[in-house]
Amino acid sequence: MSGTKKFWTLRYIIINATYFAVYSGIHAYASVFLLEKGFSNTLIGITLALANILSVIFQPIVAGLIDKQGKLTNRNVSMASTALLLVGSILLLLIKNGIVVIFIIFALIYMVQMVYQPIITAMYFEYEAAGCHIYYGLARGLGSCGFAVVSFFTGRAIGWFGVNILMILDIFFLTVALVVLYFFKKPKTEALPAEKNEVAHNNLFSFIKTYPAFMLFVLAAVCFFFAHNAINDYMIQIITPLGGTEAQMGIAVSCAAVLELPTMALIDKIIKKISVKNLLLISAAAFLVKTLLMLIAPNMVVVYISQAMQMFAYAVFIPAGAYFVNQTMARLDQVKGQAYINCSITLGGVFSSLVCGRLLDIKGPHFMLIVSLAVTTAGLVIAFFALKVWKTKTTDAKA
């Protein structure tokens, strides 16, 4: 790796690692923080559902503004988002009570962070095109590692210092991110001029008409992440009948997170040998196998094997999905494309939260996994049709 590439990659690694460190505090420990502030489980569910729905609405809107190639660049929006998260974290640290105020602030910062996520990915492709060479897979993989490591130590830190340590850590990581983003400036001389006939499809219907196969794949991805989130959110309910414990749940979750790194780190080399579309189909099949193994698991060993499928499922989907957008879309649509990929993940989580909790109460974890497997199977069929069968304008969008 050349010195220049190391320099750009190192800074992009810090941007990813700090983002997912904060993601841990705001998302993974949301229930822990809000319960301590006096929220009921029902109110927590309302808060997170509202924030997720708002993020699905605002991600394409913000992406459309960035795609217009004005002053709202990926970097500027990233800095503004980080600053908003920093202010929100400080306010949550200072406010001792007041459920309504905490509800508003927490929902907003949760939403802002979800809106910000695809912009980080789009920023990589923007900088790469400008000659700022970065190892994306390595940076994204280390971002996941940052999440896993911080989540592990945060759990212990809460026991030692109380729940406010979440906001203190977030303030620290956000400050580091803001400083790095400020100096993460793309060389102006390397900027690419807009093509003469290039048009941004900011209207949803225009976007669907231009990229129908892509939007069909987004629907398939919603199905994958329905099952993915069902397993993650209700892991303890799934493994308890198998004799599993909270400690074993921690091992299963950590196993999945750690195994993401090697796949993501090698994705740049893998893409040279396997097409992005085939990688996405491999990912889809891995989501199916992961869900099937979890359904038929007779013991924790098979649960661990199911979690190990993460290295072929989520760890392939995230970078391959990012490259898929870059390869198939016109430049003025790429930030929106990244946003829609992220929206599919969010929507899968929303539908999973709304449906699977009820299924657990009525039929139990086994039936919930049967439904999840059926949804994932439908997603695989849709993905195959979108990526292999449907010939559309998508293939010519960047011609």
Explain how this protein is built:
It is built from 16 helices and no strands. By secondary structure, the chain is mainly α. The chain folds into two domains: 1-184, Growth Hormone, Chain: A, CATH 1.20.1250; 204-399, Growth Hormone, Chain: A, CATH 1.20.1250.20. Helix 3 (41-67) packs parallel to helix 5 and helix 6 (136-161) packs antiparallel against helix 11 (246-273). It starts with a helix and ends in a 10-residue tail after the last helix.
Strand fraction: under 5%
Under the CATH scheme, the architecture of the largest domain is Up-down Bundle
Number of helices: 16
Oligomeric grouping of the chains: single chain
For the sheet with most strands, the description reads: none
- Provide the CATH superfamily of the largest domain: MFS general substrate transporter like domains
CATH topology of the largest domain: Growth Hormone, Chain: A
Total tally of structural domains:
2
Low-confidence residue ranges: 392-399
Structural class: mainly alpha
End-to-end separation: 31 Å
Shape: globular
Q: Give the ordered list of helices and strands.
A: HHHHHHHHHHHHHHHH
CATH class of the largest domain: Mainly Alpha
Mean pLDDT: 84
Rg on CA atoms, Å? 20 Å
Tell me the number of strands: 0
Helix share, percent: over 70%
